[in-house]
Design brief:
Layout: E1 3-4, E2 26-33, E3 40-48, E4 51-55, E5 70-75, E6 80-83, H1 85-91, H2 99-102, E7 110-112, E8 119-121, E9 125-130, E10 133-138, H3 142-155, E11 170-177, E12 184-192, E13 195-199, E14 209-212, E15 217-220, E16 233-238, E17 241-246, H4 250-261, E18 273-282, E19 289-297, E20 300-304, E21 312-317, E22 322-327, E23 339-343, E24 348-352, H5 356-372, E25 396-400
Antiparallel strand pairs: 1-2, 2-3, 2-10, 3-4, 4-5, 6-9, 7-8, 9-10, 11-12, 11-17, 12-13, 13-14, 15-16, 16-17, 18-19, 18-24, 19-20, 20-21, 22-23, 22-25, 23-24
Organism: Cymbomonas tetramitiformis
InterPro entries: PH-like_dom_sf, PH_domain, PI-Interact_SigTrans_Reg
Protein name: PH domain-containing protein
Length: about 400
C-alpha cells in the first residue's frame, strides 16, 4: 500500500512550493507494464517533484538497500496523468471494457504477474505521459490510483514555454462518431495549438489520427436530454468533413469546445474578414505600445506584424459565455481617447484606434460577432443602443447568456 508523505497534497494546485527536488512526496508498490515486452512487473516507486524513480522487487531483509538498486527514472515534465481505456470504461462509463480491449495484454480484469502464477487485477490502470514517453501503471484500488494521480499532477513540472515538449491545451477521453457509418469509437484525445491527436488507448505511443485544426468550426450540438441538462456532444467541421464527439458530460463538452476554438488556425484567405486595420497594442507584461495589424475573423481578433498577415503574433476569442468591451484610458501620442479593452473572462487585449471613427467601427464589428455567436435561447444584457455603440454611461458593452 502506498504511503502519502506530504500533507500539502490535500490542497489544490499544480505545484508544491515546499517540495524541492529529491524530497519524497509519495512512495509505494505499483504494477508496471513493460515498455517493449508488455508484461507486468511489481516495482517500488518513489515520487518527487519532476520525477518518478522505480526499483526492483526486494527481499524484506534487504529493503534498506532499496535506493541502491534503482531500475529506472521517469520524468514528470509537462506530463498528463489519465486513466487507461479499460479503467475509464469501467469507472466513468460504468460498463465492462470492450472485448477488443480485454483481449489485449493487460486490457482489464485479471492477468498473471510475470514470473509466477499469481493473478492480479488490472482494473485500476493509469498512464503518465511525458516527453514522448508513456508509463503504464496499475494500483490495487481506485483510492490508491487516485492518490497517485493527484500526487503526480501536483509534482508535475509545468513549462508552457517548452517548444520541444509543449504541454497540451487539453486532453481526455472522447467518444468519436464517424460521419459516414455512424460507428462510435472511444478515443484518448490530446489537443495542442493547431492540431488534435487521438489514440486508441492512453497508453499508446503511436498516434492513431492527427487532425489539423485549420479553418474548422466547432460547436455544441442540441441537447436531447429529457432532464434539461446541457449537451455532452459537439461537432468539428472543416474543409475535409465533419467529426462528431461526445464527452463524459456537458461540462466537459463545453470545456472541449472552448479549448478547440482557441486552438484553431484560421487562414485569412478562407475565413471571411469582418474588420481589419492598423491599431496600437498595449503589451501584456511590459506596458509598451506597439503598432500591429488587427483582423476580426472567425470569432477571433488576431494581430499580425503587417497587413500581409503571414506572421500572427497573438489572438483573443470574442465568442463564448461572456465578452466585455469597454473604453480604456490608455493614451498613445495623438491617439488619446481612442482606446478600448476586450475581455473574454480569461484574457484581455487593449488597443488604440487611430481615430474616433475607427474606434467606433471596431466596437460595432466586435459587438456584431458576439451577438451572432450567441447560442439559441440566450439573452443579452446591457446592450448598446444605435447611438451609443459602447453601451452604458460607464462606457462598456456586455453580453450575457442565460444558463438553463
Amino acid at each position: 500500500m502506498s504511503l502519502l508523505m506530504d500533507e500539502n497534497l490535500t490542497g489544490k494546485g499544480l505545484t508544491i512550493p515546499e517540495t524541492h527536488e529529491g524530497h519524497t512526496v509519495l512512495e509505494g508498490w505499483l504494477l508496471k507494464r513493460g515498455a517493449v515486452v508488455k508484461n507486468l512487473k511489481r516495482r517500488y516507486f518513489i515520487l518527487s517533484r519532476g520525477r518518478m524513480d522505480y526499483y526492483h522487487d526486494l527481499d524484506k531483509e534487504k529493503e534498506k538497500y532499496l535506493k541502491l538498486e534503482r531500475k529506472g527514472t521517469f520524468p514528470i515534465h509537462n506530463a498528463q496523468v489519465v486513466y487507461c481505456r479499460a479503467t475509464y470504461e469501467l469507472l466513468v462509463l460504468n460498463k465492462e471494457p470492450a472485448a477488443e480491449v480485454r483481449e489485449k495484454p493487460q486490457g482489464g480484469l485479471f492477468t498473471k504477474l510475470m514470473g509466477g502464477s499469481e493473478e492480479v487485477s488490472t482494473d485500476f490502470g493509469f498512464c503518465v505521459r511525458s516527453e514522448g514517453r508513456v508509463l503504464m501503471l496499475y494500483a490495487k484500488s481506485k483510492q490508491e490510483m487516485d492518490e497517485w494521480n493527484k500526487a503526480i499532477t501536483r509534482c508535475n513540472e509545468f513549462d508552457p514555454l517548452d517548444t520541444e515538449n509543449p504541454p497540451p491545451v487539453k486532453d481526455g477521453w472522447l467518444v468519436k462518431t464517424s460521419s459516414t457509418d455512424a460507428e462510435q469509437k472511444l478515443r484518448y484525445a490530446v489537443l495542442y495549438d493547431g492540431r488534435m491527436n487521438y489514440f486508441e488507448d492512453s497508453a499508446d505511443e503511436q498516434v492513431k489520427v492527427c487532425m489539423p485544426l485549420n479553418d474548422v468550426r466547432v460547436e455544441l450540438m442540441p441537447s436531447t436530454s429529457e432532464d434539461g441538462s446541457g449537451s455532452s456532444k459537439f461537432q468539428v467541421a472543416g474543409r475535409d468533413g465533419v467529426w462528431f464527439f461526445e464527452a463524459a458530460n456537458d461540462f466537459e463538452a463545453n470545456s472541449w469546445v472552448e479549448a478547440i476554438q482557441q486552438s484553431v488556425n484560421f487562414s485569412p484567405s478562407w475565413i471571411p474578414i469582418q474588420k481589419e486595420g492598423w491599431m496600437v497594442k498595449l503589451g501584456h507584461r511590459t506596458e509598451t505600445l506597439t503598432r500591429r495589424y488587427f483582423v476580426l475573423s472567425g470569432g477571433l481578433v488576431a494581430y499580425y506584424v503587417d497587413e500581409t498577415m503571414t506572421s500572427e503574433l497573438g489572438r483573443i476569442p470574442v465568442r463564448g459565455p461572456g465578452v466585455k468591451v469597454e473604453l480604456s484610458d490608455v493614451e498613445s501620442g495623438n491617439a488619446s481617447g481612442f482606446s478600448f479593452k476586450i475581455f473574454n473572462g480569461k484574457e484581455e487585449l487593449i488597443c488604440t484606434a487611430p481615430t474616433e471613427e475607427k474606434k467606433t467601427e471596431w466596437l460595432e464589428a466586435i459587438r456584431e460577432v458576439v451577438v451572432h455567436c450567441a447560442p439559441a435561447g440566450g439573452e443579452t444584457a446591457d446592450a448598446a443602443s444605435d447611438d451609443d455603440p459602447v453601451g452604458s454611461e460607464e462606457g462598456f458593452y456586455l453580453i450575457k447568456w442565460a444558463h438553463n
